[in-house]
From TrEMBL:
<protein>
    <recommendedName>
        <fullName>Purine nucleoside phosphorylase</fullName>
        <ecNumber>2.4.2.1</ecNumber>
    </recommendedName>
</protein>
<dbReference type="InterPro" id="IPR011270">
    <property type="entry name" value="Pur_Nuc_Pase_Ino/Guo-sp"/>
</dbReference>
<dbReference type="GO" id="GO:0005737">
    <property type="term" value="C:cytoplasm"/>
</dbReference>
<dbReference type="InterPro" id="IPR000845">
    <property type="entry name" value="Nucleoside_phosphorylase_d"/>
</dbReference>
<feature type="domain" description="Nucleoside phosphorylase">
    <location>
        <begin position="24"/>
        <end position="270"/>
    </location>
</feature>
<dbReference type="InterPro" id="IPR011268">
    <property type="entry name" value="Purine_phosphorylase"/>
</dbReference>
<comment type="similarity">
    <text>Belongs to the PNP/MTAP phosphorylase family.</text>
</comment>
<keyword id="KW-0328">Glycosyltransferase</keyword>
<comment type="function">
    <text>The purine nucleoside phosphorylases catalyze the phosphorolytic breakdown of the N-glycosidic bond in the beta-(deoxy)ribonucleoside molecules, with the formation of the corresponding free purine bases and pentose-1-phosphate.</text>
</comment>
<dbReference type="GO" id="GO:0004731">
    <property type="term" value="F:purine-nucleoside phosphorylase activity"/>
</dbReference>
<comment type="pathway">
    <text>Purine metabolism; purine nucleoside salvage.</text>
</comment>
<dbReference type="GO" id="GO:0009116">
    <property type="term" value="P:nucleoside metabolic process"/>
</dbReference>
<dbReference type="InterPro" id="IPR035994">
    <property type="entry name" value="Nucleoside_phosphorylase_sf"/>
</dbReference>
<keyword id="KW-0808">Transferase</keyword>
<dbReference type="Pfam" id="PF01048">
    <property type="entry name" value="PNP_UDP_1"/>
</dbReference>
Length: 272
């Protein structure tokens, strides 16, 4: 069970390291860690040093919070996130979001790598998430004392902030960057989907599928924290023409597309 005392201890540790009133939180997904290199005057805190933080276990997630300046705003960046498929529960997965909120962030940006279900979208495209389907079989709000942290019955009629989404669409047009919009389905993983599962996801109305993001977005809404999320589409999930997946290629495509995502985030942060 999570307590306010634990959250306070985690937050106090980061404040003592110099994490001073960040305005924005940014979560970096698989293959999308380079934005962290652009943070000015960075202060780092490794997850295994932060009290009550889970430990990162996935080899391509480095596992630290980075605090510093980005486009004149104080930011805290999560380089490496937690997943249910690593054996964490949904409270662990979302604990860092609660800590960033305690530190003072007013807005949250999330990125992930995902597979394109909608075949009008191609690998290397970016998709602004407009809505999601939670297929992780649980909720990060399903714990006894949740009411101590926010409303138990959190409204999800508009989980992704409309104003920031609109700004990103305008920025993408101006910068000549292709930015699709769509519905993201979040599954447990870590195995990839079968042909039949891809067909099911299409019927359900998903445009992309991944193994993260939705728990963090639910908690952001629980905390009344405006949130946006961008998926970098790293493979095309065509059940009629399915090839074995190449994880290395997925990471390479994410890395190649990342500079465009950074440009979108940078321009949006300038406007906030």
């Amino acid at each position: 069970m999570m307590t306010n005392k634990q959250l306070k201890e985690s937050t106090d540790y980061l404040i003592s390291k110099g994490f001073d009133a960040p305005e924005l939180g940014i979560v970096l997904g698989t293959g999308l860690g380079k934005l962290a290199n652009e943070i000015e005057n960075p202060i780092e805190a490794h997850y295994n040093h932060i009290p009550f933080f889970p430990l990162a276990t996935v080899e391509f997630h480095t596992g630290k919070l980075i605090y510093g300046s980005f486009e004149g705003k104080k930011v805290v960046v999560m380089q490496g996130r937690f997943h249910v498929y690593e054996g964490y529960d949904l409270m662990d997965v979302t604990y860092p979001i609660r800590v960033m909120h305690q530190l003072g962030i007013k807005k949250l940006f999330i990125s992930n790598a995902s597979g394109a279900i909608n075949l009008d979208m191609k690998k290397g495209d970016m998709m602004l998430i407009e809505d999601h389907i939670n297929l992780q079989g649980g909720s990060p709000l399903a714990f006894k004392n949740v009411a101590e942290f926010g409303s138990r019955f959190t409204d999800m009629s508009a989980p992704y902030d409309v104003t920031m989404r609109q700004k990103l669409i305008e920025i993408a047009k101006k910068e000549n960057i292709t930015l699709k919009e769509g519905v993201y389905a979040s599954v447990v993983g870590p195995q990839l989907e079968t042909r039949a599962e891809y067909r099911m996801l299409k019927i359900l109305g998903a445009d992309a599928v991944g193994m993260s993001t939705v728990p963090e977005v639910i908690v952001a809404n629980h905390l009344d924290l405006p949130v946006i999320a961008i998926s970098v589409l790293t493979d095309e999930c065509d059940p009629e023409n399915l090839k074995p997946v190449n994880i290395q290629e997925i990471i390479e495509i994410a890395e190649k597309t990342e500079p465009k995502m950074v440009r979108l985030f940078r321009e949006l942060i300038k406007q906030l």
